[in-house]
Design a protein that fits this description.
Length: 316
């Protein structure tokens, strides 16, 4: 199966599962393939045939987007290296959870969570430490006896009771001996989540970008720049998140950029804006408000910019 077909298959499953999806884009160099939302779940997804083909810069940006948008990064792949990914197992690449299409089907269509995660050395599971301690106490089983049955040390049993993950085979032996279900379901959106450092704030060679960012910072916004997105930054404070596009040196790509940014704004339930190097004949396009560089310079507060965005969104 090629990557394009895999992306289509993933989109079909997510749509059946009730997710609202970003439109399929054909832009090259974008870090993600799909942004999907269902209720309080927001996924930033990259689809690839082989998880080992993931690029570090794309992974870093997906993590940054997930953090800024309060979402979860996710890789969906068929293989890792030369091996096909196992069903029901969570893997990890570059700090991002990886699942197979089959695992995705089980989760979103059948409501069956994964129970196993892959880590150096093999497959592991999370054990319900409270049930383990209680079962061992009620059955008067010593640490030594259980360790012998499981084929591990007494110290390992103690760590399982403190919440450490266990080798899958070890966990199954303990479950069989105690007659208790100990293995817990896993949430891939909480597993192997690493925060990436923000990308370089300002490109000093780009006067337009630097000026826009500096104006927004002066007003009181935080700026998270992006390098592989249809928009150039996420502009935010405690109450507002703006997907912020920048267009300079002519408006030849303005309409296509606005269309993509508007769609992503709708899926993520965040506002969007495009800053221009000069005035445009319209004040919004494809549903996204436009603000010229000169207008931004004379805006003194966040409330002023929000009022302008509201006005131009309504007019659009």
């Amino acid at each position: 199966m090629n990557r394009e077909q895999l992306v289509d298959d993933v989109r079909e499953v997510l749509a059946k599962a009730g997710f609202y999806l970003s439109e399929k884009h054909y832009e090259r160099g974008i870090s993600f393939d799909i942004i999907a939302r269902r209720d309080n779940i927001l996924l930033i997804i990259n689809v690839m045939v082989n998880a080992d083909s993931s690029r570090i810069e794309n992974a870093k940006e997906i993590q940054i987007l997930a953090k800024a948008l309060n979402g979860s990064p996710l890789f969906i792949s068929i293989k890792g290296g030369r091996r096909r990914l196992e069903r029901g197992v969570i893997y990890s690449r570059r700090g991002i959870p990886v699942i197979s299409p089959e695992t995705m089907d089980d989760m979103f269509l059948e409501g069956i969570p994964p129970y196993v995660f892959s880590a150096p050395g093999g497959f592991y599971v999370s054990i319900d430490s409270e049930i383990l301690r209680k079962a061992r106490s009620e059955q008067s089983i010593s640490l030594g006896t259980l360790a012998e049955i499981a084929g591990v040390s007494r110290k390992a049993i103690q760590k399982y009771e403190d919440g450490m993950g266990a080798d899958l085979d070890v966990a199954l032996r303990i479950e069989e001996f105690l007659g208790k279900s100990l293995i817990m379901p896993l949430n891939p959106f909480e597993y192997s989540k690493e925060e990436a450092e923000d990308l370089e704030m300002l490109d000093m060679k780009d006067d337009f970008k630097r000026s826009i960012f500096e104006s927004l910072l002066t007003i009181g916004y935080d700026i998270v720049p992006t390098h592989h997105c249809p928009f150039e930054a996420i502009t935010s404070d405690d109450d507002t998140v703006l997907l912020s596009g920048l267009v300079s040196k002519g408006n030849t790509d303005l309409k296509s950029k606005a269309k993509i940014v508007t769609n992503l704004s709708s899926v993520t339930e965040k506002r969007s804006v495009i800053f221009l190097d000069k005035r445009y004949k319209k004040t919004s396009i494809e549903g996204t408000p436009l603000i010229s560089h000169r207008e931004l310079i004379y805006i003194d507060s966040k409330s002023d910019i929000l009022e302008l965005l509201k006005e131009r969104t309504e007019k659009g």
